[in-house]
Design a protein that fits this description.
alpha/beta; D-Maltodextrin-Binding Protein, domain 2; six-stranded mixed beta sheet; five-stranded mixed beta sheet
């Protein structure tokens, strides 16, 4: 029995190695856990084209929206570990959702990391007629009116909500959180002076450029190349280390053969270096943030510890 078991294991190992050496021999599927037209969909389609060119086989985008990205993410986790199905993951699907919900996947154990792709900051905006010229002035204005001011986010338990709560914990601000169903209504209420400030995704930037909103700071760890004149919150005295950014990464299901993982890592690296991808991502307000597979899992663990504390202290719950 032992010899038979060893023989079967050896045969499987040889088959796996042979498959890895010929990978890919047919088209592949890139699962995007969001609907067509979303930033992740645009990212997935550009990435699929570039990786397909590098690997020599077509990469077909498969949109699987639903459950805040949970349906598509589960599909990646449950795919055959042969490299022919991989997909996009994000800070929401691999950090926030597992902290707030009980998804049908483990964000570490059920995936093979391929690499981080890009990150995106949030932007703190106010009405342009508000008499504050900097983040420091805004914080002083809010502190002088405890409990009388509000900040809006694009959703309860969203990264914008967590960013606001992190800012409150680091400054002692007393503000009321107002969640919206998306960035557009949030931005509209800031423009209508219904909120003291809003924490929005980068879709607010056209309104900033047109003068309908004033951007006081970004939530990135350092200034963003596309918007070098906008300071980051971490530059403010007492707020060093502040960071609240979303990110996008590529994953395969757990158990990918090492040789297959290496091929996908190399194809992703080539795509990330492409001027085409960099140009499109910059236009979408994203910053290139490539990493190794180990670096991706290290990021997930550090983000989990950070946001788990914020969620507990702010008593954030999902409905």
């Amino acid at each position: 029995m032992k010899r038979t078991g060893i023989g079967i294991l050896l045969a499987l190992t040889l088959v796996t190695a042979a498959l890895a050496q010929t990978f890919p021999s047919r088209s592949m599927k890139l699962v995007v856990p969001y609907p067509p037209g979303a930033v992740t969909d645009i990212l997935g389609r550009i990435l699929g084209q570039l990786m397909g060119d590098s690997l020599g086989q077509p990469v077909i985008v498969d949109n699987r929206p639903g459950a805040g990205g949970g349906i598509g993410t589960e599909a990646i986790a449950k795919a055959a570990p042969d490299g022919y199905t991989f997909g996009l993951g994000a800070s929401s699907t691999h950090v926030l959702n597992p902290l707030l919900y009980k998804p049908n996947y483990d964000p570490i154990k059920d995936f093979t990391p391929i690499g981080l792709i890009a990150s995106t900051p949030l932007v703190l905006v106010v009405h342009p007629e508000m008499q504050v010229a900097s983040l420091g002035e805004l914080l002083a204005w809010i502190k002088a009116r405890p409990g009388q001011t509000s900040y809006g986010s694009y959703g309860n338990a969203s990264m914008a909500h967590l960013a606001g709560e992190l800012l409150k914990s680091m400054t002692g601000l007393d503000m009321v959180h107002v969640p919206y169903k998306g960035s557009a209504p949030l931005q509209a209420d800031v423009m209508a002076r219904q909120l003291t400030m809003g924490i929005s995704d980068m879709s607010a930037m056209p309104h900033v450029k047109s003068g309908k909103l004033k951007a006081l700071a970004l939530t990135a760890p350092k200034r963003v190349a596309a918007f070098p004149d906008i300071p980051v919150i971490a530059e403010e005295q007492g707020l060093a280390g502040f960071q609240a950014t979303g990110w996008f990464a590529l994953y395969g299901p757990a158990g990918l053969p090492a040789q297959v993982q290496e091929r996908l890592v190399a194809a992703l690296a080539a795509a990330v270096e492409s001027p085409e991808l960099r140009g499109r991502l910059t236009g979408l307000g994203l910053e290139m943030s490539p990493s190794t597979p180990d670096g991706l899992f290290a990021l997930q663990r550090s983000e989990k510890a950070k946001w788990e504390k914020v969620i507990a202290e702010a008593r954030i719950r999902v409905e």
